[in-house]
Amino acid sequence: MLLYTLSRLARALVTVVLIVTLAFIILRMTGDPSIIILGPDAPEQAYEAFRRNWGLDQPLIVQYFKYFGAIAEGDLGRSMRDGRPALDVVMDRVPMTLALTLPALVFNLILGLGAGVFAALNRNTWIDRAIMTVSVVGFTVPSFVMGLVLAMVFAVQLKWLPSGGSGSWAHAILPVISMGMIGAAVIARFTRSAMLEVLGQPYIRTASAKGLSWGAVVLRHALPNAAIPVLTIIGFMVGSLVAGAVVIESIFSWPGLGRLLVGAVANRDLAVVQTILILIGFTMVFANLMVDLAYGWVDPRLRIRTLSTAK
């Protein structure tokens, strides 16, 4: 199990290094932050002083190694807008984003898993067709369209919920549903497919023949064996929720990482943008690492296969 975990940690570390590198290069190819922050009418001496102060006058490779060395020491830089540590600026917004993404993830799992299992157990009935039709709609509609439609119906027309802001729990309902519907639709489709494949296996018929109730067969044998492909989707879903928050927070004026990222990109606040991207990258890597480890827990054969490969 130790070798299995170490192999996954090594892969996660390489992924994070690549994320940091890409974030650094791409951001410095998008424009000169001195012009955005100081304005187009500032004198050339002000631009030069700004670039010198923030190290932007040095060759790109030198900037990269200095930045990477600072990250190794725990320094993610400072905001060019107000001089605060970029990590402090970002962490101030993390609780607000978690207030959306965590409920949205729970919504994804409960609705998606429940609908997928229910559809599989009622295969080729009107219930199955109805659930899959709704799943296709939920999967194909972009999150920003979903958010706008929900805001139009429940905030503008019915006036049941606020259309934006973050003053109370009611403000979070529409953003959470907007973020959760697409994920729930994807999970439902994969859960149904995985359950149908498992339900057709001989050991399911054997368990039924031994006198176990159908509910016990589903809970003890079908669901655990159908969990592995579903775990893969859940791992990707965590990263997509964090990335999707950028759009949803902008639509509903929610003061989280999404709105901060949009503002930081517009202002070319490099350290803040890089810190957010690194945080998102770490979140996605951590989620997929947990999924990899869950594979080994759910199916010990995967651990054995990994150990054999390592040898």
How would you summarize the topology of this molecule?
Elements (H helix, E strand, L loop, with lengths): L1 H27 L4 H6 L5 H10 L6 H13 L13 H6 L2 H28 L4 H15 L2 H15 L12 H30 L2 H8 L4 H38 L5 H11 L2 H29 L1 H11 L1
Helix pairs in contact: 1-13, 6-7, 6-9, 6-11, 7-9, 8-9, 8-11, 9-11, 10-11, 11-12, 11-13, 12-13, 13-14
Question: What are the key terms here?
Answer:
mainly alpha, MetI-like fold, 311 residues, 79% helix, disordered C terminus, 2 domains, transmembrane
What percentage of residues falls in helices of 4 or more residues? over 70%
How much of the sequence is in beta strands? under 5%
CATH architectural label of the largest domain: Orthogonal Bundle
CATH domain class name of the largest domain: Mainly Alpha
User: How many distinct domains?
Assistant: 2
The run of helices and strands is: HHHHHHHHHHHHHH
Find the structural class using helix and strand composition.
Answer: mainly alpha
Do you know the CATH topology of the largest domain?
MetI-like fold
> What is the fourth-level CATH superfamily of the largest domain?
MetI-like
What gross morphology would you assign?
A: flat
Task: Let me know the largest β-sheet.
Answer: none
Span between N and C termini?
13 Å
Total DSSP E strands: 0
Mean pLDDT: 81
